[in-house]
Amino acid sequence: MAANNSVTGDDLWYVHVRYSTLQVVLVFFISSNLLLIITFFKKEYFYTTARYILFAVALLSDSFVLLLSNIQLILLHFDVPIQVWLCIIIVVVVILYLTVTPVTLTVMTLERYVAICMPLRHGELCTTRNTMHFILIIHGLSSVPCILILSTIFVSASLSFYKQYQICLVELMLVHVWQHNFRAGLYQVQFLIMCIIVIFCYVKIMKVAKAASGEDKKSTKKGLRTVLLHGFQLLLCLIQMWCPLIESSLLQINVTLYVVVRYINFILFYLAPRCLSPLIYGLRDEVFFRALKHYLFSRLKRVLEIAVSPICLA
């Protein structure tokens, strides 16, 4: 009995450490995204330029996913059930913005393609007005999987189901195997289309890079690296779409194994792709990075002045 209690205590300690570590990481990246969003609104150039507007959309999308996924994680960790109708609202936003991010990345790749391969038309196509239309299109396309997945829940559940209390996981709402398969297949088709678009843009930009010279060549190569990073993000997002199918299978076999695999998947395929967006534009982009440094230093200077003022008065 002592041995069993010791093992249980060790397992419980490991779960709490793992959960606490994840909370620290999530708070850090949500705070980083918030800082980048504030920087975006501090300079008019950013919110009148297509690629920075799309970058802000990706940041907001990632922040929504991280925040709501963390709420689900907290409820799961403390084993807190909520009513199904409330869970569906959370799940709707998570499913929607899980798709908004990769669709936005695809549109950002197309914007780089237009900027490099059709520079004379870039100013005409990528105006602020058109970018707002693109954002509406992004959300419209992203809502299609969300509507279809929810439809499979609505057709197979009675009205009493929505008043029940359960742990807020979409896998528990998809009660039939065909629903899981439909969800996975839907995402695969969507991401296959996105991957084809990214590969097409990469090939076209590569051709321009070979023909370019001097500053144009340097700029084109930077655009090529950006497209590659977007492609890597999309690859992680594509793998992420297989995760629910794997997790739902494990849930039927072993709950402990399901929790461990879900934790690993969350780190590698949910968190990692959303950490690359700040890296690609927040740190690699010289203009944005200078604005970020200026904002940070000005805020730090103001905090120091406020802290020193009482000392000087004394």
UniProtKB/TrEMBL annotation:
The chain crosses the membrane at residues 20-41, 53-76, 82-110, 131-162, 182-203, 224-243, 263-283. InterPro entries: GPCR1_Superfamily_Member, GPCR_Rhodpsn, GPCR_Rhodpsn_7TM. It is found in: Membrane. The keyword Membrane applies. It holds the Pfam family 7tm_1. The keyword DNA repair does not apply. GO terms for molecular function: G protein-coupled receptor activity; odorant binding; olfactory receptor activity. It comes from the Eukaryota. Keywords: Membrane, Transmembrane, Transmembrane helix. One of its GO terms (cellular component) is membrane. Residues 32-281 form the G-protein coupled receptors family 1 profile domain. This is G-protein coupled receptors family 1 profile domain-containing protein. It comes from Lates calcarifer (Barramundi).
